[in-house]
Write a structure and sequence with these properties.
Strand 1 and strand 2 form a beta hairpin. By secondary structure, the protein is an alpha+beta fold.
C-alpha cells in the first residue's frame, strides 16, 4: 500500500509505502466479532438501507483485528444523499476505535459475491 503526498514546492507527487496492518493475519476467522445490542439502530427514512448496513457489519466483523462493533449507520460527512456511504465503528483487539466506510456499489458487489457462494 502507498500514500501519495506532495513534494515540497512542486506539483509532483511522491509515494510513501504504508505498512499493511493485516499482514500475516487470516480473514477466515472462525470467531466473529461481537455486535452490541441495538446495532444497527435504523432511523426513520433509512429503512431502505438496512440491507447495506447489515452487509457492512458482516464485512467488518470478519476483519482480523475487529473485537466489537458498537455503531453502524449512514455517514453524514461522506457520500451524498443520492449516493450515501455506510460506516461501521468498532473496537480493535488493541483497544483502538476504528471506522470503516463503504459505498453502496462496494456493498452490492459483496452481497452478490456472498449470494453466489451460498
Amino acid at each position: 500500500y502507498y500514500k501519495m503526498s506532495m513534494k515540497a514546492d512542486t506539483y509532483k507527487l511522491e509515494r510513501n509505502r504504508l505498512e499493511d496492518c493485516y499482514k500475516g493475519r487470516s480473514y477466515n476467522n472462525k470467531v466473529l466479532a461481537t455486535v452490541e445490542n441495538g446495532v444497527p439502530y435504523i432511523f426513520e427514512g433509512n429503512e431502505k438501507y438496512v440491507k447495506y448496513i447489515n452487509v457492512a457489519i458482516d464485512i467488518v466483523r470478519r476483519l482480523p483485528d475487529c473485537k466489537n462493533i458498537f455503531n453502524a449507520d449512514l455517514s453524514v460527512n461522506k457520500g451524498t444523499p443520492s449516493n450515501p456511504v455506510v460506516y461501521v465503528q468498532y473496537e480493535s483487539i488493541d483497544g483502538r476505535i476504528q471506522s470503516e466506510y463503504y459505498t453502496l456499489n462496494v456493498l452490492d458487489y459483496y452481497f452478490r459475491k456472498q449470494s453466489k457462494s451460498e
